């Protein structure tokens, strides 16, 4: 057997031994990284909403807003709907893979709540009043660590 052939067999055997000998957690982690990005632990959306409400709206928006991650209608990243005396924000996690994107979307949807609370509906969901809200909170630093 030639030296090249023996060396090649050594490399193949070494690769097999190393892959089998690696700890299971290391192999799983390596496989997960090669498949796609790791999901971050979910942020506490209720706490973030409460903080944003206090900081950018002076606590004037409803405190009992229900926030979920259950939206499965792929036409939307998120929706905000009135629910009697309060509101529900529902996020579509297919489009929000990071906490930053969740926070940006939460701020976006909170501007919709402001429009509902003011009882000044617009024909366009993202009309001048909603845009003014987004510009105001952006100027106040809401997007500083998000963009």
CATH architecture verdict of the largest domain: 2-Layer Sandwich
Q: What helical percentage do the residues reach?
A: 40-55%
Categorize the overall geometry: globular
Output the radius of gyration: 24 Å
* Strand line-up in the sheet with most strands: 1-3-2
Strand runs, count: 3
Which segments are poorly predicted (pLDDT under 50) over 5 or more consecutive residues? 3-38
Distance between the termini: 61 Å
CATH topology of the largest domain: Zincin-like
Decide which structural class fits the backbone. Answer: mainly alpha
Mean pLDDT: 77
How many DSSP helices?
5
Total domain modules: 2
Residue fraction in strands: 5-15%
What is the CATH class designation of the largest domain?
Alpha Beta
CATH superfamily membership of the largest domain = Metalloproteases ("zincins"), catalytic domain
